[in-house]
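Hi X.,

You mentioned you wanted examples for the new student's onboarding notes, showing what a folding record looks like when two proteins sit in one file. Here is a clean example. The first protein comes first, with its sequence line followed by its C-alpha cells.
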Amino acid sequence: MNEVKAIASDNPLILEKAQADQDLSVLESLATAHRRSQTQTRQAVDAANTAISSYSRRIPALRDAIADRTETKGDAFRATVAGQVFTERVEAANAIREHLGAAASRARVTREPVTLEALVTLGGHRFDVVVDSSLGVTKANLQMQAAPDDVFVRDDAFALMGLPESHGVVTKMKNALAGMEGALTRAEQRLAAAQRDKVTAEANLGQPFAREAELQAARHEVAELERVMRGQNSDEEQAEPQEDVTTPVAPQAQASGTAAATRGHQDENESALWEQAWDEWETDSAPPSPPRTQQQINAEGSQRVRDALAARHQRHNDYGDSPFGLSHQGPQMS
C-alpha cells in the first residue's frame, strides 16, 4: 500500500520511506524475537537450577533407601500396619484395606484430604497414606517417607484396596520397593540432563542482538526521512495561496443591500429638506395683519413648505443630481 501511495503521489521520498519502514519492521521483529529468546533462556536456566537442586537431594536419599531396604520375599515377609505386625500378606492387606476404607469414607464426608502417617512399614521403610475425595472420585497415595517423590503407590482408593482376602495392595508396595534402583537411575539421568541444559542456556544468556547496529541505522534512516518529509510538507503549505476568507454575498443580496442603502439615503435627504423649508417659512413669513385661525396658519405653512421643496427639487433636477421626483408631496402636517 505504501508503494502504491508513493507511485500515485509521484514523490520518490514516499517510496524510499516505505522501503525504510519495511526494513525497520523486519529488524524490529527480529529484535523482539531475540528478547523473547533471552527470556526463555533465562527461564531455562532457572528450571535447570530447580531440577539440579531437586535431584541433588533425591539421589542421595534413594541411595540411602536402597541401603536400608530389607528383604520381603518368602518367609522374610514382615509388615506393620498401624502398629500391628503381620507376617502373612493377606492379613496385612486386610488391615491396610480397613484403614484405607475408613479414610476414604471420612474424605468423602469432609471433602478434605485425610493423612495417615506411617500407616504401613514394609521392607524396612515407612509409608504415609493420603486419601483425597473430589468430583466423585476418591484417590489414595502411599508414599515412602525416605523418598516420597520416587517410591510411591497411587491409584483409585477402592482399586488400590483390591478384593477382600486378596493381597494386591501389599504386592504393589513390594514392587515399588524393588523399583528403587530404577528410580535412582532415572534421577541420575535427569540430573545430568539438567546440568547440560544449564550449561547450554548460560552460554546463550546475555547474548546481544546480532543486528543491533543495523537496527539503530534503520531507525535513524526512518527518522531522517520523516524529518525531510515534514519539511517538504511545510514548504508546500507555505507556497499555497491564501484563501479569500471574505464571505461571499449572493447577487440578490448585494442588489437588495444597495437598494436599501439608496432608499435610506433618499429618506434622510428628503427629511432634511422638509425641515429646512419649514424653518425658512417660519423665519421669512411675517405675521398677517388680521388674526388667523390655527387651521389657516397650518394650511398656509404647508403650502409654503411644498412650494419651497418644489423649488429645491427643480434646482437639483437642473444640475442632474436630484434624488427625488417632482411629484413628492412631503409628509402631511397636522
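Then the second protein repeats the pattern, sequence line and then C-alpha cells:
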Amino acid sequence: MKPTFTIIIFILFFCRGYSQTYKPFDTISFEKRKLFLKEFKSRNDQKIKEIKKTYSGKVSKEMEAVYKSQFEDFSRTIDNKELYFDDNLQNYIQKILTEITRNNPVLADKKISVYFSRDPEANAYSIGDGTIIFNLELLKYLNDEAEIGYIICHEIAHYTLNHRDKSIEKEISSQNLKDAKALEKDLKKSKFNKQIKSESFAKNSIYSRKNRSRLQEFQADSLGLDYFKKTNYNSASSINLLKHLSKTDIETDSLPRVSYPKNFTTKNQKFIKEWVAMEDYSKYSYSKENIFKWDVDSLKTHPNCEQRIEKINKLVKNSKTNYYADKAFFDDLKKRIEYEQIYSNYYIKNYGLSLYDALKLKEKNPKSVYLKEMIASNLDALANAKKEMRINSYIPSINPTEQTKSQQYYFNFVANLTLSELEQLALDYKN
C-alpha cells in the first residue's frame, strides 16, 4: 500500500532554493513511457532479426530467448517508473549525445538513445540494441559535463563492438555445453572428490567469463576514448572520471550520532536511549563454512581503475578547453542531485536508504521543508512495512564487513523502533 503522504511530494513548491523546497523530475508521463516501450519493442524485434541472421541452431534460439527476457525485465523497470521522461533532462542528455555523434561520422547510422534512470547504483550500461542507461546517481561523483560525455562514449563503444552479443554467445557456446556434459559424466563415474571437481569447473567457468568482461572494458575504454577525442570535450576528463569511479563504493559522509536525539525528539515522542543500544557485531561471522574460497581479483568484472588509467593515460591529450553543451544545466543538476536521489529512493521504495540520506542532508540544511516532508514520508512507509512485517525489505541486517559504522548505527536504530514509535514519529513530522 502506498503511503498516504506521497501526494505531498508532488505538490511541493517550485524550487527557488533547494535547501527549502524541491520539485523532483518527472517519471510519471504515461504517453512518453508508452512511446518509449513501443520504440524499445521495435529495437528488440530488430535485434532478434539480426541474431537469426548471424547465428544458427541452439545458439540462435538461446540468444533470442535472452533478448526476449531482457525486454520483459526492462519493460517492468519502465512500468515501475524508474526511467526519467522529463523534457529538460532528456533535452540535456540529447545535447551531449549530439556533440558525440556529430563529431564521429562513423556513428551517423547508429540508432543510439540515452536515458537517465533513478537506479541508486552509480553506474551506466548499454542494453545492446543502441539503448544506453545512465543512472543519475553517477552525477554525485562527476566534476564536469565532459565526464558524462566520456561515459556515453564508453557505452557506445560497448554497443558498436557488439559486446553484449559476444558475451551471450560465449556463455551458450557448444564448447561450454560439451565441457559441462563431460563433467557430468565424470562426476557420475567418480567415487571421490565430486565436490572438488564441480567447484573447480564452476570457478574456471566464472573466472573465464569475468576475464572476458574485463577485456571488454579495456576495449570500450580505448574505442570510447577515440570517439571522445573527436569531440570538443577535454579528453583529460576521461582520466579524472576513472579516478572518481574508484571511490563510488565509499561513503563520503556520515550521520553524526548526536543527530539522533535532535531529529527524533518530537512533540509527542521523547527520544529513548534504548533505540541506539548496539550489540558488538565485530566478532560475528558472515561467511558460511561450506562456501569455497574464490580468487577475489578474478571475480572483478571491471578492471581496477588504476589499471584502466594506466592503459589510456598515454592516449590522452589535455589540449582543449572545458567545453559544455549546457553548463548552466549541468551546474543545476549538481545542486539538485542529493535532493533528487532522496526522492528517487523513496519513489522506488528504497525507504531505508531515502530516510538515511534525508537525515544526512538535513545536517546541512536543518530548515528544509522538503527534507522534513521526505523524512515524514519515509517514516510513514517504514511504519506500514513494520505493520505488514516487511521491515527487513528496507532495513538490512548489520554486516560490519560491508557497512560503515554510520550505516550500522542507523540500521540498528531503525530496527529498534517499535511500530507505535514509528507511527508517532511519522505523524509528528507531518504536523
